[in-house]
Write the structure tokens for this entry.
Amino acid sequence: MPPRQRLRDAAALRKRRTQIEEDGSAVIGHIYKHGFREGTPEEQALVTARRGAQQLYPQGEILSEEILQTPEHTAAGEYLVVINLGTRDPAGAAPAAS
């Protein structure tokens, strides 16, 4: 299972992406985001997001999963699942688009 973190802001999300590429000798090839209503169980949301991510980027390995819930997400009654996909072989992947 890839590492998972609960993040509170976009800056932490960007820092996490940099950490994945530096610490794991990985290259993120695609970033998949999926929003869920606050009452959705996290495990159900993660399964749905994994499925969607792998359909859009089947050649990528799931490098990490993050739950992003900023104060704005909380006020709107939602949270975001962010899945970073790519490869642990930097020679075989293109950098992710921002």
About this structure: The first strand starts at residue 4 and ends at 7. The first helix runs from residue 10 to 23. The helical segments are 10-23, 42-56, 71-76. The radius of gyration is 13 Å.
